[in-house]
Amino acid sequence: MSKFLLRKKQREKYELQNKERSEEEGGVDPLSLSPAHSSLNGDTPKDYGSITSLLNNEDVFNNTNTNTTSAETNRNNVLRGIHDQSTFFADKTRKIDFVLVYEDDKSDSLDNPGFTLDLESNPTDRTPSPNIHKKPGKKKQKFRLWRQKFLGGLQTIGLDIESDVIAQCKNNLHFLKLHAPWGVLCRYAEELNLRAPLQAHPNQELNWTEWILAKLRLPNPMWEDVPNRPLDYYTCPFKTSKIDRFLGSDDVENFFSRAQRSRLVYEILSTTAFGREKKGEVGISRLVEEGAYSAAFPLHDGSYEHPGNDTSPSDLNARQILYHYWARWGRWYKYQPLDHIREYFGERIAIYFAWLGVQYNSIAEQ
What we know:
The chain has helices spanning 3-25, 51-56, 71-80, 138-157, 182-191, 208-215, 258-271, 284-290, 318-325, 338-345, 347-365, and strands spanning 98-105, 160-167, 171-179, 195-201, 232-237, 295-297. The chain is α+β, with helices and mostly antiparallel strands. A hairpin with a 3-residue loop joins strand 2 (160-167) and strand 3 (171-179).
C-alpha cells in the first residue's frame, strides 16, 4: 500500500472515530461542517466556495494591478472568468487552486519582543506598560508549529504557495494561495484514477415532457437555450505515459478543469501530515477543526454579474451562466442545466439537484 493511500486510510479512520464519539455525546460532528461554518474574523461566517457564495459574489482578493493590454482584451478576460486576475497568483500566470485562511494577533508576531517597558514617564518604574506584547500561549505556539510543518509538507510535495495579509484592528488575516504545477497534477490524477477525455460524442438529452409537448405541437415554457453546453466525452483513467492520446493534452494549463484541480489539491491537503500520524494529526479538516486554520476553500471562476446586453451569451463564464439561467427565482419552472452544474460543482451536487427536481415533479403530480 502506498504512503498516499495509507494516510488517506488513517484520515478516514480518524473521521469515523470522531463521528461516533460526537454521536454518543449528542453533538454535531465538526468534520461534517464545511469551511463555510468557520468565521474568518470572529463575527460573520462566510460560505466561501459554496453555492451560497454563488449568489453573494464574495470578493476575497482585491488586486489593484492593471494589465497593459488593450481594453477589449481585458474585457474578454473578465467575461470568461478563466483569466480573472483575482483567481491567479501575482504573476498572472499560475492559477489559484485552493486558499487557506488563518488569523493571528498582532501582538503574537515573531518580530515582537516578549514584553516592552515604559521608562519614559518614570525611569525607576520597572513594571510592564499597559500595551505589553505577550508571548503567544502554548495553544497558539502549537498551531504555529502545525502550520509550519503542514506548509513544509505541501512545499515538499511540490505545491506553490503565495501569501496575502490583511491587517485588522487586533488581528492579521492571512490568505495562503495554493497552486499545483503540471507535474503534481499528473502524479495525483494518475494515483486517483481520474478520468480524462479521449473523444467527444454527441450529447443527446432525453426529456419525456419535451418530447410529448413537441409531438402535440404545444409550446414548452420549461425549455430554455442555455449557452456553452458542456460536451460529453468517452473517457478512461488518466495515464501520464499516454498523455498524447487525451483531448487537450497540448494545452497543459487548461487540460484539468478548475473543479478537477481543486479536487486534486484537496486530496493533497487531506493526506498531508502536520504532526504525529498515529494520533490522526493529518489533513486540513483536522486543522480547521482544531482552529489552526479558519477556513479552506477553492475559488469561484470569476464574477457572477452579467456584463451587459451587448455581450453575447457564449461569452459568459460558467458562474454567470449558472446565476442567470439557474440560480434565480425567475427560473424555478425551467429545466435545470444539469450538465453545467455537473461541470462546475461536480457529480455529487448535480445528482443532488437532479433528485430535488424529481422529488418536486412527484409532489406536483400528486
